[in-house]
Amino acid sequence: MKNYFQKLISANKLAHAYLLVGSSLELALWITQSVYCKEQNACGQCANCRRIEHGNHPDVHIVVPDGTKIKVDQIRELQREAALKAVEGQKQVFIIDKASKMNENAANALLKSLEEPLQDTLYLLVSETKNNILPTIISRVQTLKIKEENRLVSEAEKTNLQLKYLNIYEDCNLSIEQVEQYKDSIDEWVDVISSTLSQNTSNALLSVQTSWDKNFNDKESKQLATVLMQSYVRSAVLIKRGKPSIWEIDVPYSWEQLVQLEKGVNNIQRAIHSNGHFLLAMEDFFIQKI
Prior knowledge:
alpha/beta; Rossmann fold; 5-stranded parallel beta sheet; 14 helices; elongated
């Protein structure tokens, strides 16, 4: 894949936008370094390569999820930067990491930029999967699928990690680093979430004060809890439609309850992002759930 991009850069034939499926931010940074590198090979030694590595090149802009989503304000800021001339070179590069995390408004805003790309701009969208990326965005970029060993979790890693719920983690787009970091507790988190969401209100509130307070005790673990809860709700919707699910959910929900579940998880996310009280938000969620 690197040889492919080196040839394009040398021939000055880069497209205006690429979707790197199954990739990580590292490949996008390598491509960017090659664009600016005096040797056009991401030497890692020149001033441009070093500045890109350290995130302080004025013509390179990286968008990452704000919490669990990429929001429309982040894309609008990207568009404002794109409207300006490059500070030092002839090209600006815009990297969108975890592009599948764009919310609907952000995706629609990006679509406008891709439909009418400004001269001398390069967009690199990085995502483990094409799922949740608008088909209209995919149609306006060149999609490259990175070879199998760069998937989220390889078969060898699955054997090594020995986790029970890898399908759920892949559904949540958790990185290998996150799975590895929390491998001693993340299986228990799934059990806690599944058990609590299947309980009646009084028992669920008791679990929040005990199991949840014990398991989710820092901001990142709380954010991951909401991502896992979103996966749970997605599975509940699939079950409601009579389709296979990666979560084992025995409690039937009405469509109205599913809507309330989704809204409740979003409210918990907002509480975390605004440094609100996580357990109070959880208690309110279970009070309003049924």
